């Protein structure tokens, strides 16, 4: 990264090399809040998501998480409108493997022809020749793992996908997947108040695999005045969201939080959290909350 890129606020979160060759600032951005209600359709305001995405990149965010299923294809369209042609250092991580039936309805489908179709549509809708990081949104229990991962590996061999990741998986599932394809990242629910994926985090750290914690702010429950972190944040002179993100950044060097927001003000607040350095005592106090 250039010196000017290093001076941007998100760079304070430090960097991680995905798959050994894609360097990203560890504090990224998740796009799921940019759609209509229930992650379905368009939001009422179509200007705001474009402004949020542009501001994220201005602040040095260069890992953006999306999925064909967000909208579907609403967030891909916003990313393209806001950021295409893409900066060389921007990593767009997308996902395939979920079908949508309506607001808040999600059914995994891992049949190879569907995964291929959705990868092709992600390429077309994002306007790229190759997807930097393609994550299998869910393993479909009805389809053999080797068929699902085998298809993603075939797409990688064809040059359409640079790296492969997984989402909502156990350690055993990652181990099984790695027999079929190289896995550079996992994306599981993980935040201060939900640490069910701690064993996966330990595994990812030991293996140098990126861990993208979704719901890093517990969908906003860790943010704002009603947050369980409110008192600590006031003492610290920061905000609850910033503390929740600072805890994740300090917890493990492989954690790559992707807080989501539809507001430029919240985005700016969250990215400023990248520069918070917790003392050992502050980290221990946060770590003791669960
Ligand atoms: N792999 C998966 O299965 C999976 C599942 C879920 C999510 N994800 C990914 O993870 C990303 C993050 O999850 P998420 O966006 O659902 O949840 P989140 O990041 O934990 O929280 C987002 C919520 O917090 C609020 N918020 C954000 N910053 C705030 C601030 N500074 N002050 C007050 N409120 C704030 C947002 O509202 P405002 O819009 O009002 O700011 C929004 O309601 C998603 O965008 C998506 O990319 C992946």
Brief overview:
With 290 residues, the chain is α/β, with parallel strands linked by helices.
Task: Provide structural commentary.
- The protein has a single domain, classed as Alpha-Beta Barrel (TIM Barrel), CATH 3.20.20.100.
- The protein has eleven helices and eleven strands.
- It has helices spanning 3-6, 48-58, 74-83, 112-126, 145-157, 171-178, 198-207, 230-236, 240-251, 264-272, 280-288; strands at residues 15-18, 22-25, 29-30, 63-65, 91-96, 98-102, 105-108, 131-136, 161-167, 183-189, 210-214.
- The protein has a seven-stranded parallel beta sheet, with helices on one face. A two-stranded antiparallel sheet has the order 1-2.
- Strand 1 (15-18) and strand 2 (22-25) form a beta hairpin.
- The structure holds NADP nicotinamide-adenine-dinucleotide phosphate.
- Residues 30-33, 65, 167-168, 187, 214-220, 223-224, 241, 258-263, 266, 269-270 line the site of NADP nicotinamide-adenine-dinucleotide phosphate.
Features:
single chain; 290 residues; alpha/beta; TIM Barrel; two-stranded antiparallel sheet; 11 helices; 18% strand; binds NADP nicotinamide-adenine-dinucleotide phosphate
- Indicate the low-confidence ranges by residue numbers: none
Shape: globular
Tell me the count of domains. 1
Structural class call reads alpha/beta
Side by side, the strands of the main sheet go 3-4-5-8-9-10-11
Can you tell me the CATH architecture?
Alpha-Beta Barrel
**Number of DSSP strand runs:** 11
The proportion of strand residues reads: 15-25%
Gap from first CA to last CA: 36 Å
